[in-house]
Amino acid sequence: MTEALPPLAGLRAASPAASAVQVAAERRLKRRYAAEQRFKWYGRLAIILALSFLAVLLTRIVGQGYTAFWTHSVTTQVRIDPARVDRSYIEGTNFDQMIAEAVLVRLGGRDDPEGLASGQIRRLLSPDLGLNLLVRVREDPSLIGRTVTVGGAVSDEADFYFKGGITREQPEGDRPLSNQQLDTLDRLQAEGLVRSGFNTTLFTRTDSTQPEIAGLLGAVIGSALTILVAALLAVPVGVLAALYLEEFSPRNRLTQFIEVNINNLAAVPSIVYGLLGVAVILNTFGLPRASPLAGGMVLSLMAMPTVIIATRSALKAVPPSIREAAFGVGASRTQTVFHHVLPLAMPGVMTGAILALAKALGETAPLLLIGMVAFTPSIPSGPTDAATVLPVQIFLWNNASERGFEERTAAAILVLLLFMICMNALAITLRRRFERRW
Amino acid sequence: MSLLNRAVTADTTLLAPAVQPPHADNSGVDGPLPPEPRRAAPTLEIHTGPQAGAAVGAVKVSARDVNVFYGDKQAIFDVSLDIPDRAVTAFIGPSGCGKSTFLRTMNRMNDTIPSARTTGSITMDGEDVNARDVDPVVLRARVGMVFQKPNPFPKTIYENVAYGPRIHGLARGKSELDGIVEASLRKAGLWNEVADRLDQPGTSLSGGQQQRLVIARAISVSPEVILMDEPSSALDPIATARIEELIDELRGQYCIVIVTHSMSQAARVSQKTAFFHLGRVVEAGPTEDIFTNPRDKRTQDYITGRFG
Ligand SMILES: Nc1ncnc2c1ncn2[C@@H]1O[C@H](COP(=O)(O)OP(=O)(O)O)[C@@H](O)[C@H]1O
Ligand SMILES: [Mg+2]
Fold this sequence. Notes:
The complex is a heterodimer of chains A (about 450) and B (about 300). Chain A is mainly alpha-helical and about 450 residues long. Helix content of chain A is about 65%, strand content about 5%. Chain A has helices at about 20-65, 95-105, 115-120, 125-140, 155-160, 180-190, 200-205, 215-250, 255-265, 270-285, 290-315, 320-330, 335-360, 365-370, 390-400, 405-435; strands spanning about 70-80, 145-155, 195-200. Chain A has a three-stranded antiparallel sheet with strand order 2-1-3. In chain B, helix 9 (about 235-250) links the parallel strand 7 (about 225-230) and strand 8 (about 255-260). In chain B, the strands form two sheets. In chain B, strands 6-7-8-3-9-10 form a six-stranded mixed sheet, sandwiched between helices. A four-stranded antiparallel sheet of chain B has the order 2-1-4-5, covered by helices on one side. Chains A and B meet through helix 12 and helix 13 of A and helix 4, strand 6, helix 5 and helix 8 of B. Bound molecules: adenosine-5'-diphosphate (ADP) and magnesium ion.
C-alpha cells in the first residue's frame, strides 16, 4: 500500500492543502465514476437505437397496412334478364355485364352500342358481384326473370379512390381511373349504394389475382399446418436426441463429433434445407409438392438443431445435486431423467422449441423451393394438399403489380407478426405453467 | 442375487408397531397426532461420549484392496476396511484425500461418473456389490445416501419422501404410502415440524430441516446402510446438533457411515473412525483409540490440527 485512500467522508471537503496523494486518489475515483456513467449511457444508447429501429419498422408497416383492414362494397338491384341466361349453362352468363348495365341504368345513364359506358363501370366493380349472383342463380333458378339485390366489393382502384389514395388533382393520365369513372363513383356514393366496413375478405378468403377479393385464410391455415407438422417432428425428435446426448451417451470422439455437427447444422442457411427437401422429401420419398407435410418436414430439419441445443443447455442447467438425489434413492437413469431432470428443464425446452418454430414460421426460401410459391386459391383440407404459407404469401403479394396488393402485403405482414406474437405468448404461458409445478 | 430379491421385497420394518401411525381409522396424514415424546438435549462434549464403549454389530460392509481411478488419476489406493453394522463409522482426513470417493464406492454411485473405475472387492453381508448380477439401482435403495448440501427434490415434502417407496413399489395403496411417509419423517425427527404442511415444497424448509427431509427420504426405502457425506457442513450449529442427535438415534437400526471434517463431530457420533490420507486409510479403529491413542504420526498431526 503505497498510496493512501481518500478519507471516506472528506472527499468534497479536501482542503487545498491536501496531500498530492489524496488529490490523485480523488481524481482516480472521479475517473471511475465517469467511466461507469459512460458505460451506462452506451448501454442506454444501444437500447434506444434498437427500439427506434423497431419503431420505424412497425410504424411503416402499420402505416402502410392499416387501410387494408377496411374496404368498400356496393349493392345494387339487378333484373335477371331471361333472354341472357342459358338455363342449361348458367355459368356461361355474363353476370358482370348485367350488373354493370344495371348500375348504369340506376345512375340514369344509357349504354352505347360498343358497351363503352358499361365497360367503364365494370372496371369499378369486383368480379365478386357477378360471382355472388351466379351462385344464387345456380342455387335457385327461379330467380331468373326477377329483380334481385346483389352486393360485393368494389374494385381495388375504386376502393383506393374512396380511401383517398387517388384524387382529382392528379392529372387524368397519371391515375388508373378517368374523370368519368370518378364521377360515377361519386354518384354511387351519393346514392347511398356504397358502404365501408371491416375487410372480412382478408380473413375468409384465399389468394386471388384480384386484390379486392384476395384473402389470407389459405396462407394462415397453410402456415398453421406446416408449423404443426414441423413441431410434431422437431420437438420430440430434438428433445430425445438432446436427452440421449446429455444424459445417456458416453463421452467419446463420436459423440463429440456429433455435437460439433449439430452446432454446425444450426448455422446452415435455410435454402440448403430447401434443396435437401426437394432432393429427399419430394424426389426420393415422393411426398406431394407444395404440401404442408413436405414444408413442415423441411422446417423441422431446420428447427431441430436449435431444439437440440436449447434442450441440452436446459438439461445442463439442472443442478447435478438433483440427479445425485434421485440416484441416491435408487432411481434408474431413465427414472431420474424423466421424473426429475426433464421436468425441471421443461421451461427451457419449451422456450427453445417455440422460438425455433417461430423462426421456422417466418422462413420463406426453403418453402419456395419445394413449390409452395405456386398460386393456391384453395384452402388446404389436410397436410397433403397444396398450400401456401404466410411469408410466401407476403412474397407473392409484394411482387404483384396491382395497387391493392401493396396495402394487403403490409396487412399480411401484420397478420404474420400477430401469429408470431401468439406463439411467443404460448411459450411464456407454457413456461409459467411448467415453472409453477417446480 | 439375494441382494436383488431382498430389496424388492423389502418389507417395511418402518411399520413396526412402535411407530405405526394412527392412519388406519382416520385415513389422512394431517389428522391429530399424539405429540412426540421430548428428547434429551443433545450431548455436545468434545471428547468421546459414553457411546464409545458401546457394543457394535457384526461387519456389514467389508472392503478389500479397493482402488478407484478417475481416468488415469488414482484417487483410492488399496483400501481395506470393515464397517460395522448398527454403529456409526466416521471417515476423517484432509480435503481431497478420497473420503467421498470411497464412500461412493459402497453404493456404486461412482458408476454415474463415466471416468470412474473401481477395482478390489466390496462386500455387503458377504456379497460382492460389484458383482455383475447386482443392479446398482437396487443396491442404492439398500444403501441410502445423504449429501453435503441438502438436495430435496423441488417437489412437495410428501413427494420427497414418497418418491423412493413409489418407484420401488414398496407401498400398496395410498394409505400404506402415507404410513411410510409419516414413519420416515418421524424417524428423521421432522414429523412434528411438517405434519401440517406436507404439500409445501421441500425447498421451502430451512437448511437443517431440508437435511432431515433428505434423511427421511433415504430412510423411506428401508435401507440397511446410510452413507452421509459431510451432512452438517452446510448447517448452523443448532441444526448440526439436531442432525447429530438424529444420527445417534438411527445408529441402533442402521449401519451408518459419515464423512466429516469436524474432529469433534467424529468423536461425538461415531464408534469407529477411519483416517484417510492421500487416498489411503492410514489408521482405523475404535473412535476412542484413534482420538486418544493414535498410532500413526499423521493421524496424530491431523487430529491435533497440525494439518488439514
Ligand atoms: N468426478 C471426479 N473426476 C475426477 N476426479 C475426481 C472426481 N471426484 C473427485 N476427484 C478427485 O479424487 C480425489 C478425491 O476426492 P474426494 O473423494 O472428493 O475427496 P474428499 O471427499 O476426501 O475431499 C481428489 O483429488 C479429487 O480431485
Ligand atoms: Mg468430499
